[in-house]
Amino acid sequence: MRVLFWLLALSASAPARTHTVKPGEVLAKIALRYHCSVEEIKAANHLPSDVIGVGQKIKIPKCNRKGIHVVRGGDSLYLIARRYGCKISELKAVNQLEKNRLNVGDALKIPACSGPKDASAAPRRSTNKASEKKSKANDKNKDTEAEKPKKTKKGKKPELGYHKTDTETLERLLRERGFYPPKGFKALIIEITLDHRQQRIIRERPFSWRNTYDDWERWNPASTVKLFAAVSALELVRAKGFNPFRTTATFFDRGGRYKRDYKVSDLIYEAIDKSNNIAYNRLVQLAGHGRLNGQFLTPRRGVKHSGIHKPYERKTWIPMTGVTHFKDAPKIQLKEGERLRTLNRGTSKGDWTCPYSGACSTPEDLASVMRRLMLHEQIPPSQRYHLTLPELRVIRRALSQRHKRGEEVVDAIKAAYRGKKEIAVFHKPGYSERWISDVIYVMERRSRRRWIIALAGFPGRGALIRAGQHIGALLASDGFMDE
Q1: Do the beta carbons of residue 302 and residue 223 sit within 8 Å?
Q2: What does the angle CA 244 – CA 245 – CA 247 come to, to the nearest 5 degrees?
Q3: Is the peptide bond before 459 cis (omega within 30 degrees of 0)?
Q4: Given a cut of 70, is residue 6 above it in pLDDT?
C-alpha cells in the first residue's frame, strides 16, 4: 500500500531529527519508534528502498498524525476499525485496499466514521513508569531475529519473534470448519511476511493448536528429524575444509576391519528425498552423537527440545555395523581428491536421552530448521546455518521432490490452493508407530507471504489429511489475515 502524496510532501519538508541505525534495526522499527510511517521516513531521506545500514544517519521528520494510523505489530484491519468507530469496508475504500492484509509501518488514512469508538482495541500501554521504562529498553534491544525466544520464567511459554504464540485462534478457526482432531494432534503454523524486495522478514506470527507447539513428550517425530542430521553433517564436512559434493566418507566397523564408502551428497539425497534410514544413521554418525546433541540441537541454534539417540531400522543396522547406539561412533575418513582426514570418534560421553523413541522433537523445533533452510537469504547472518547456497539448494531440491510416502497432507494443501493462488511446497514427512508428522514450507508466488507448518497426528493418516484440507483452505483464503 502506498501513502498519499500529500503526506509524503509534508513529511519531507518538516523539520527533522536524526537517528543513527543500530544493529538489528529495520526501517519499520525506526518508524514505529518515532510514530511515523515507513513512507514518511523514506521520503525525508530520499531512500529508494527499505534497505538501511548500521551507522547510517536517518532524518526523522515531524510526521503528520492527524487522521492517520500507523500500523503496529498486532494490529489488524478489524481492530483498527473498532478503535476509530469505522467499518472495515470504509477503511478499505478510503485507503484503496483490495485485501485485509496490513504491514507494520503502513500509514492508514482514517475517515470520519459515525460508529462508536472502542478504546479497548487500541494497543495497551503500561501506567507503571518502571514497567514502561523496561518496555522501552526491550524495544531498543529487539533484533530482527523472529525466532529468538524471550527469556521466561520456568513454566511459562516462550515467544517467537515480535508476536507471542497464539494458542487460541487456530483451534477456533478449525472448529468453526467442523474439524475435531484426535487427542494426539499437534500443530504450529507460522505466517511470515517479507519486505517489498523479499530480502528481509518483517513479520512473523505463530499460531498453535492449543499449547502443542513445544510439546516433545510421548510422540515420535520419525523421519522429520532427518533434517537435523543432514544439516549438522554438512556443517561438519564444511568445517573440516571439505567440499560435500566431492567428498567420500568411509565408515569402519567397530573392529576397524570392514569399511563402507558413501558420497556425502548421496547420503543427503537418500536421507531426505528417499527417507532412507541407513543413510540417515550414517549422517548421524558423521555429525557425531555428542556434537549433534550437545552443539547443534541447542537453543542457540534455534532448537530447544530435540534429540537424536538410537539408530533407525535396527534389524538391518545392527548386523551391518555391530553398533546399537549412536554413542558408539566408528572411525570415519573424509577423502576429497588427495586430501584425507580421519575422525576417531570413540564413545560419546554425553547423557542425552529421548524417553519415548529413538529421536524427539517439537513442532517449534521442526519449524525452526525449516525456516533456516528455506529463508537463509532473508534472515540475519547470526541465525543462518554454516552452509553455502549450493549446499542449501541440494537440501531444498530434495524437499521439493515428490516422496514415495507421505504426500497426502501436502496434496490436501495444494488442492485447497488450486485455482486461487500459485504456490511452491517443500516438506519432510515422517511416519512411525502410527504417528504421522510433516514439516512444510509454503511459498505463495507473486506474494511476500510464506507459511511454515509443522503437524503431527495419532493414530494414522486420516486426521492429518483432514487437517491439511482445512489449513490449506484457511491459508488460501487469507483466513488468518482477517483476524
Answers
A1: no
A2: 60
A3: yes
A4: no
| Cα–Cα separations (whole angstroms), residue 63 to 10, 22, 25, 40, 418 | 8, 22, 20, 7, 43
Angle at 481 between CA 475 and CA 483, to 5 degrees: 120
Question: 166: which residues sit within 8 A by CB, 6+ positions away?
Answer: 205, 206, 207, 208
**Any alpha helices (H) in 296-362, and if so which ranges?**
314-321
Q: In the structure grid, which three cell numbers stand for residue 370, read together?
A: 525449516
Task: Report all structural domains of the chain as residue ranges with CATH numbers, in order of start.
Answer: 5-117 (3.10.350.10), 155-219+373-476 (no CATH), 222-360 (no CATH)
Predicted confidence at residue 14, as pLDDT, reads 44
Percent of the chain surpassing pLDDT 70: 83
Cβ atoms of 47 and 223 closer than 8 Å: no
- Determine the distance from the C-alpha atom of residue 188 to the mean position of all C-alpha atoms in its chain, rounded to a whole number: 10
Rounded distance between C-alpha atoms, residue 126 and residue 13, angstroms: 34
Name the grid cell of 185: 494432534
Grid cell listed for 132: 514502561
What pLDDT digit, counting tens, does each position of 415-474 carry? Answer: 999 988 899 999 999 998 888 999 999 999 888 999 999 999 987 677 788 999 999 999
Q: How many CB atoms lie within 10 A of CB 270?
A: 21
How far apart are alpha carbons 378 and 144 in whole angstroms?
10
d(CA 136, CA 80): 23
Helix H or strand E encompassing 469: helix 462-476
For residues 339 and 260, is the Cβ–Cβ distance under 8 A? no
pTM score over 0.85 = no
Query: Are the beta carbons of 282 and 311 closer than 8 angstroms?
Result: no
CA angle 180, 182, 183 (to 5 degrees): 120
Q: Would you give the distance in Å from CA 332 to the centre of its chain?
A: 33
Task: Say if residue 277's pLDDT is above 90.
Answer: yes
pLDDT of residue 89: 84
pLDDT at 16: 54
Q: What is the grid cell recorded at 418?
A: 488450486
Other beta carbons within 10 angstroms of residue 295's beta carbon come to: 15
Distance between CA 174 and CA 170 in Å, rounded?
6
User: Measured at the alpha carbon of residue 287, what is the angle toward residues 382 and 360, in degrees to the nearest 5?
Assistant: 85
Tens-place pLDDT, residues 175-218: 988 988 888 899 999 999 999 888 999 999 999 999 999 888 77
* 162: CB partners within 8 A, 6+ apart: 73, 142, 146, 203, 204
Higher pLDDT, 165 or 4: 165
